[in-house]
Design goal:
There is one protein chain. This protein has one helix spanning 2-20; strands spanning 47-50, 65-67, 91-97, 103-112, 119-128, 131-133, 136-138, 142-148, 151-155, 162-173, 178-187, 196-208, 210-217, 220-222, 227-235, 243-251, 256-258, 265-267, 270-275, 282-290, 294-304, 321-322, 327-328, 334-336, 341-342, 344-346. Strands 1, 2, 3, 4, 5, 8, 9, 10, 11 and 12 form a ten-stranded antiparallel sheet that branches. Strands 13, 15, 17, 18, 21 and 24 form a six-stranded mixed sheet that branches. By secondary structure, the protein is mostly beta strands. Strand 19 (270-275) and strand 20 (282-290) form a beta hairpin. The protein has one helix and 26 strands.
Length: 358
Amino acid sequence: MKKVLIFKLITVAILWISCNFSFAQTIINGSMVGTECAYTHTPVGWSPVVGYSGYQTPPTGTSPDILAARCPAYNNTAIVAGSASPDGGTWVGLNQGDKTPSENEAIQQTITGLTAGNFYKIQFYVANFGVFNSGNSWNNTGRMNCYLDGIKIASSSLRPVSTGWELVSGTFKATSNSAVIQLDPEDLSTSTDSHANYLSVDGVTIGPAAALTKSVNPSTISYGGTATYTFTINNNYTGSTTQNGLSFTDTLPAGLRIASIPNLQVTGLSGGTTTATSGGTSITASGYSIVSNSTATITVDVTNAAGQSNSSCGSNPSAFTNGASNISGLSSNLANNVGDICLIVNPCNAGSIAPTLN
């Protein structure tokens, strides 16, 4: 056990050196390596802070715990049996709620080596083993939030006390070469019943992500005509890597349908499949790979739904506007950078004279 801990600590030291003397973005000690069962301690590379997820009373302090399978909660008093995350080894326990004293424990660190304008993915594991200590239960349902410079970029599901870990993913666009990330538990209780939660976090990683955008051409069609949606996956920037398992679903707005002849075309991607059924209401791409320093596209023809027309995109009418909220099922390595794309569908004019050829 001592040899394993020494090896892990050496690894952390090497990571710290590489983070500070290279341009590769990384998390320092994302594996939360530290001395097992070190209560009120914070792993190397992280700083204890008061989190953003406030509660009914102002939080008064923060004291994270370094945990392990033999001590999966503060003072080894987990409500359910705890186990190591898929990352293995030690992890961190954080408390948030209205116990006395009220605490909002969080940890943070500054990432360096980012490139402004590039997209990145962050992943981490979350569990809720709870705590029963000195007659008090920290057993509320809660979630773990991840903030980047104060903006929430990822959240776990609402987790009651239970065994097992959840892998959480999020993406972000860097605005400078450094940023502060914070891991912050949130107690979802709405009462003042002196309860709190106690969540575990481990295995934080960061890496490049591809970005999804979308366009339409032409932007105006006649009733019954077709326009082409182009989905662009951009993986062409400094530091990009091959991305596998790229997936997303685009649900069309209510006024549009996939054309009777979809004219589906895929370029720059390998593996994977795209489903775009004539008359359908969604386009699904799954399982694709894209190499580094490249851009790929998926194109599909769409038309108006029966009886639907749109004379103006001035206010981006929802029935004809496709935006970021229409995208779902994103793989963890694909950032949603889709803007609002509106299609004008000019109605047929009753009684109009059909054009003739001279």
